């Protein structure tokens, strides 16, 4: 027997009544009680553009890590960091790293690049026509830029990178997108730019597609690591040897030795990250703050670097080359997500780089805490104490 069609209402689909009707349909067909998913404070009328067929909520536990002390260009001072997770030990670990870095004077953060992409492909009769097209694109950049930016108030076309293979040529359009993550914005702008290009009838053009996987949307890639997607942000700190011993019960020498082993392990495994668990902190903040969680696929890649100084202090940095975040638009304006952003002063216009810096600092704290737990043999015991909810 086939399952019944879920009810829809063209005039009032975003309502408590329609959400209840869909839950009732699912319950009748599956015998699954939807008691908790049906309890929420969000007005369904706020949700057009965020979800279709709204039926309820999935509640994820949320806590505050910190406070974290950040010395950034956009984030300055102490912050509580909202993190939504079902993994025990996570907030305790991040808070421990935040205590260490706070007592060391805070995490220094810098946003060093900003670009969101769409990468259409142009296929030509032969490689020579494709090469000549590339020269033509460079010569007509101003016209292409004007066509793209006519579709958006906040997006700006920064440049167009070109990548060739045989008779194929990808154009990687790099946009700045203001306070939005910007994927939809740049798709629309790039489409308009490409329609202008196509109207010029490039000689020898055989085929065009707005996307052919080179922008690597919702997946990481080497090109993102090298050339940035979203925000490229660095968090760094120098930790005094005495403080490492007092708070983490380890030393800079032990952390540096473990760093070399972790670098080799990541290299042998072909990992896109030589760190421990960027994804844990990024995902937890993304869920609490209304980010597109699928962007963790790109945002969790990164680079860790450590240096043991002559006096025993330890310099440590994390670089996130593709952190895709927003302080406006998408899910950021939903009630609980907006509240979490407002806790950090990161909701609305002009706040996206501040959010990026806080997330990068949070990642650094999590990396230091987990690395210290591993080298001091506290990793398993802490999970056993805080991460078990079974008798």
TrEMBL record:
<keyword id="KW-0521">NADP</keyword>
<dbReference type="GO" id="GO:0008299">
    <property type="term" value="P:isoprenoid biosynthetic process"/>
</dbReference>
<dbReference type="InterPro" id="IPR004554">
    <property type="entry name" value="HMG_CoA_Rdtase_eu_arc"/>
</dbReference>
<keyword id="KW-0560">Oxidoreductase</keyword>
<dbReference type="InterPro" id="IPR009029">
    <property type="entry name" value="HMG_CoA_Rdtase_sub-bd_dom_sf"/>
</dbReference>
<dbReference type="GO" id="GO:0004420">
    <property type="term" value="F:hydroxymethylglutaryl-CoA reductase (NADPH) activity"/>
</dbReference>
<dbReference type="GO" id="GO:0015936">
    <property type="term" value="P:coenzyme A metabolic process"/>
</dbReference>
<comment type="similarity">
    <text>Belongs to the HMG-CoA reductase family.</text>
</comment>
<protein>
    <recommendedName>
        <fullName>hydroxymethylglutaryl-CoA reductase (NADPH)</fullName>
        <ecNumber>1.1.1.34</ecNumber>
    </recommendedName>
</protein>
<dbReference type="InterPro" id="IPR023074">
    <property type="entry name" value="HMG_CoA_Rdtase_cat_sf"/>
</dbReference>
<dbReference type="InterPro" id="IPR009023">
    <property type="entry name" value="HMG_CoA_Rdtase_NAD(P)-bd_sf"/>
</dbReference>
<dbReference type="Pfam" id="PF00368">
    <property type="entry name" value="HMG-CoA_red"/>
</dbReference>
<dbReference type="InterPro" id="IPR002202">
    <property type="entry name" value="HMG_CoA_Rdtase"/>
</dbReference>
